[in-house]
Write a structure and sequence with these properties.
With 507 residues, this protein is an alpha/beta fold. The protein is built from 17 helices and 18 strands.
């Protein structure tokens, strides 16, 4: 069985020898997460079209069937396929699609199931690209005729991938929406003109080797290995939005010398218009975090920051830009990091002139005790974490739902979302006086930094577009699950991945 599992290099040699003998190679590709009778029928029919059947398998890192998938790791999936008599060779694909495998092997036949005949099922356009690659290499596509089954449907129904609470939420959504309807709603986000307001932050991650305690002083000694740098703050939110919306404006703040301006512009997608003011005698905000290279634990944070308010001249320029931009955008997203950009005066202008306003007023080590949401009223949607809520209301142990009701009433907030880390989130709608719980869809987190920004971006789009609370919470939670899978804001959330996750979850 193990001999069937080969590397792409060895497989190329095998296929080349067979081609000399005019033997036909048939290729099938997929995740094959939970092998079932539909797969077996598919492979048996595919084998009849050629002399050898090769099956390529998507590696774990590229499976986008939703959080906590694949249910079975790549090693087990390879072994299960290798045990089938119809299959001659199994190879692991280290790319998101089979295109590289197709180009390497140049199969005579590429087999897909009947369900892939329908273009609607090709969410990312990958299947179309794979077919083009097959034809380019002289092969042809054949769709097997057997009855199709869904691994995702079987896993959702019989496995413990999702909790009972998650299954209940998914069931409610399935009664109201089809996946095609959800996909259409998400695609309609591109019509929205979005204005993002907030400080741009440069997130630097310094990966180190922990050498231990100094022999002379009471301190931890680290050896610097390498540094990575990403766009954080409001710039990260803009990047999250870039795959969903066609027109985005980022109104932000840089230091007086406009440090990192070139890097910022280089890393912002073309559909983001960058508008900013300079804060004289202040640096562009840099948050440097030192991490243990092995386990990625954060050891120390060093901030290059100035939290002083804008000068009168600077604030006048900022307000001028605000008034010019607010009325021309359908959705305004404010992420107030409390680093001096947004004053009480400018926050009132934002609240008064925004067509639809979503907000996160964050507390952190630099502003705790001094930064408040009280500057904002009449907000359509607010996202904060539980610690921020309790700090705002000076109540450490009070009932969460009572506190959420209190904040929405005092600040006239229409929708309030409180995030609770691995416990998920709580959604409260003031008008309907209803709470919705949404459990977290990520069992593990590489880095929690930026997950709230991802949720804010997506849930604001959902609510502005009229999507109900249950579905909005699910989509936003999937965005957060994507975000925590990478270090900081290294990657923006991927629309295609969210759509594929939704497709799998709702089967």
């Amino acid at each position: 069985m193990i001999r069937k599992i080969v590397s792409i290099e060895d497989l190329k040699k095998i296929v080349s020898k067979l081609k000399v003998k005019e033997k036909k190679t048939v290729l099938c590709h997929g995740v094959f997460d939970l092998l079932h009778i539909g797969h077996i029928n598919h492979f048996q029919e595919a084998k009849n079209y050629g002399d050898i059947l090769v099956v390529s398998v998507t590696s774990d890192q590229h499976v986008n069937k939703g959080p906590n998938r694949p249910a079975f790791g790549e090693e087990n999936r390879l072994k299960a396929l290798a045990a089938l008599n119809a299959i001659d060779y199994v190879v692991l694909s280290k790319d998101p699609t089979s295109i590289s495998i197709i180009n390497e092997l140049k199969p005579s036949i590429y087999c897909k199931g009947q369900d892939y005949r329908i273009n609607q099922n090709d969410i990312s356009g990958e299947i179309k690209n794979e077919i083009n690659a097959v034809k380019k290499n002289g092969g042809k596509i054949i769709y097997t005729k057997g009855i199709t089954f869904s691994s995702s449907n079987l896993i959702n129904k019989f496995s413990q991938t999702y909790s009972n609470e998650q299954k209940t939420l998914i069931g409610k959504i399935k009664k109201k929406y089809s996946f095609i309807e959800i996909r259409r709603l998400i695609e309609n986000f591109k019509k929205l003109k979005v204005l993002v307001i907030g400080e741009t932050i440069i997130d630097q991650y310094v990966f180190c080797d922990a050498l231990g305690k100094s022999g002379k002083e009471s301190m931890l000694v680290l050896r610097e290995l390498n540094t990575e740098q990403y766009l954080g703050g409001a710039a990260a939110i803009s990047r999250h939005l870039s795959q969903f919306c066609s027109k985005i404006t980022l109104l932000s703040m840089l230091g007086g010398k406009s440090e990192f301006l070139r890097e910022i512009k280089k890393n912002l997608p073309k559909n983001i218009k960058f508008n900013y003011i300079k804060k004289k005698n202040s640096p562009t905000i840099v948050k440097k975090r030192f991490l243990d290279y092995v386990n990625k634990n954060k050891v120390l944070g060093v901030y290059k920051i100035d939290d002083d308010a804008l000068t009168n001249v600077e604030e006048k320029l900022f307000i001028f830009k605000l008034k010019k931009l607010l009325s021309s955008h359908d959705l305004v997203i404010v992420s107030d990091y409390g680093h001096g950009l947004i004053s009480k005066k400018s926050s009132k202008i934002i609240c008064k002139n925004s067509k639809y306003l979503a907000l996160n007023a964050q507390i952190n080590a630099a502003n705790v005790g001094y930064h408040s949401m009280r500057n904002y009223e009449n907000v359509n949607c607010v996202i904060i974490n539980e610690r921020e809520l309790r700090h705002e209301l000076r109540d450490k142990n009070g009932n969460l739902e009572i506190l959420m009701k209190r904040l929405t009433k005092e600040q006239n907030i229409k929708n309030l979302v409180v995030t609770r880390g691995d416990q998920g989130s709580v959604f409260y709608n003031e008008k309907k006086n209803k709470f919705n719980l949404c459990e977290a869809y990520a069992k593990t987190a590489t880095d929690k930094i930026g997950s709230g920004d991802a949720m804010l971006a997506v849930i604001a789009l959902c609510l502005k577009s009229g999507i109900n609370r249950e579905l909005a919470s699910l989509i936003a939670s999937l965005a957060a699950a994507q975000s925590v899978a990478t270090i900081g804001n290294k990657e923006s959330i991927n629309k295609t991945q969210i759509l594929k996750s939704l497709d799998s979850i709702l089967k």
